[in-house]
Amino acid sequence: MGSKISATGHYLPEQVITNDDLAKIMDTSDEWISKRTGIRQRHISKDENTSDLASKAALNILQNRNITADQIDFIIVATMTADAASPSTACLVQEKIGASKAFCFDINAACSGFVYSLSTGIHLMQSNLYQYGLIIGAETMSKAVNWEDRSTAVLFGDGAGGVLLERTEDDCFVAEDIHSDGGRHGALVSDTRKLTSPFGGTVEEEQSYLTMDGRAIFDFAIRSVPDMIRDVMLKGNLVEGDLKKIIAHQANIRLLEAISKKVKLPFSLFASNIADTGNTSAASIPILFDQLVQSKEIQLGTKDKVLMTGFGGGLTWGAIVISL
Ligand code: ACO
């Protein structure tokens, strides 16, 4: 017994901001952004917070499976841009979609969050205690970045995507390889909070904006992700021909090309939508996953194998192979 992914869905805010739009408000250009990253545009929320995007993706998933929210046993939201530290974004989603019997929690593993959450959800389902679990990745990165810092502002976008795990005889789980290195936490930091009690602490100014050492993350990803892909394939006893698609976190197209070269797997195996969405952190993998399902490049129920891999702040990195 175990689970399969029986439906997918996503939601992107309506407003699209192109590289040329950004060049009007900061010292940058379409040429620099598209050449260095592959990004041409991103969706930026006007008035919807992370829980709104996540709820719309969740409703899209339920509609695609034709079930109601009150059938859901648990909701996990992967996010580094929660509406609040408490309640969790997952609890807000529960209220917004009416998933009255679900238990709900968030997982924060930055851009690896969806892989961490899918792994957690799949292993929860292996307990045989649940019928349906919703796994969502959702971010409003637009509220985390400093719009006066061109080195990060041009990279990120907003969005949400997710999958429905449904109890089945066969388990979709094939293999996983998941890591963290808190020793390198300084490479990506966002929304730090200082101690401010009258019994100690400090009242120095807080640094809430996201700061990232892009070069360090690039180098870390080039070193660690190919090794992880090799390791997860080894664990799953898989060779190149066994994989239908690799759905990697969408941070930079040059990074994906470098990873593909290093791991000696054809670039055509790596799906990409970064040109249209930018880096949506924990949402990037499930948005792309749903787009591939909708375009029929991958099909649920075929037992084709898909490798998903995320990497980012923490540092965190993880890969999971599932059978569709
Ligand atoms: N427009 C124009 N010029 C710019 C911009 C911009 N938006 N941003 C930086 N520059 C300039 C810099 O000032 C620098 O100028 P200088 O040479 O005169 O000093 C020059 O461009 C080169 O800057 P670099 O930072 O060295 O550029 P690089 O080629 O490293 O690309 C990038 C930067 C795109 C951020 C890259 O390092 C990257 O993609 N890193 C990976 C990021 C990543 O994967 N993040 C995932 C984790 S995210 C998460 O966990 C939420």
Automatic annotation (TrEMBL):
<keyword id="KW-0276">Fatty acid metabolism</keyword>
<dbReference type="GO" id="GO:0004315">
    <property type="term" value="F:3-oxoacyl-[acyl-carrier-protein] synthase activity"/>
</dbReference>
<dbReference type="GO" id="GO:0006633">
    <property type="term" value="P:fatty acid biosynthetic process"/>
</dbReference>
<dbReference type="Pfam" id="PF08545">
    <property type="entry name" value="ACP_syn_III"/>
</dbReference>
<feature type="active site">
    <location>
        <position position="111"/>
    </location>
</feature>
<protein>
    <recommendedName>
        <fullName>Beta-ketoacyl-[acyl-carrier-protein] synthase III</fullName>
        <ecNumber>2.3.1.180</ecNumber>
    </recommendedName>
</protein>
<dbReference type="InterPro" id="IPR004655">
    <property type="entry name" value="FabH"/>
</dbReference>
<keyword id="KW-0808">Transferase</keyword>
<feature type="region of interest" description="ACP-binding">
    <location>
        <begin position="250"/>
        <end position="254"/>
    </location>
</feature>
<dbReference type="GO" id="GO:0033818">
    <property type="term" value="F:beta-ketoacyl-acyl-carrier-protein synthase III activity"/>
</dbReference>
<keyword id="KW-0444">Lipid biosynthesis</keyword>
<feature type="domain" description="Beta-ketoacyl-[acyl-carrier-protein] synthase III C-terminal">
    <location>
        <begin position="237"/>
        <end position="323"/>
    </location>
</feature>
<keyword id="KW-0443">Lipid metabolism</keyword>
<feature type="active site">
    <location>
        <position position="249"/>
    </location>
</feature>
<comment type="similarity">
    <text>Belongs to the thiolase-like superfamily. FabH family.</text>
</comment>
<dbReference type="InterPro" id="IPR013747">
    <property type="entry name" value="ACP_syn_III_C"/>
</dbReference>
<dbReference type="GO" id="GO:0044550">
    <property type="term" value="P:secondary metabolite biosynthetic process"/>
</dbReference>
<comment type="function">
    <text>Catalyzes the condensation reaction of fatty acid synthesis by the addition to an acyl acceptor of two carbons from malonyl-ACP. Catalyzes the first condensation reaction which initiates fatty acid synthesis and may therefore play a role in governing the total rate of fatty acid production. Possesses both acetoacetyl-ACP synthase and acetyl transacylase activities. Its substrate specificity determines the biosynthesis of branched-chain and/or straight-chain of fatty acids.</text>
</comment>
<feature type="domain" description="Beta-ketoacyl-[acyl-carrier-protein] synthase III N-terminal">
    <location>
        <begin position="105"/>
        <end position="182"/>
    </location>
</feature>
<dbReference type="InterPro" id="IPR013751">
    <property type="entry name" value="ACP_syn_III_N"/>
</dbReference>
<comment type="pathway">
    <text>Lipid metabolism; fatty acid biosynthesis.</text>
</comment>
<keyword id="KW-0963">Cytoplasm</keyword>
<keyword id="KW-0511">Multifunctional enzyme</keyword>
<dbReference type="GO" id="GO:0005737">
    <property type="term" value="C:cytoplasm"/>
</dbReference>
<dbReference type="Pfam" id="PF08541">
    <property type="entry name" value="ACP_syn_III_C"/>
</dbReference>
<dbReference type="InterPro" id="IPR016039">
    <property type="entry name" value="Thiolase-like"/>
</dbReference>
<keyword id="KW-0012">Acyltransferase</keyword>
<keyword id="KW-0275">Fatty acid biosynthesis</keyword>
<comment type="subunit">
    <text>Homodimer.</text>
</comment>
<feature type="active site">
    <location>
        <position position="279"/>
    </location>
</feature>
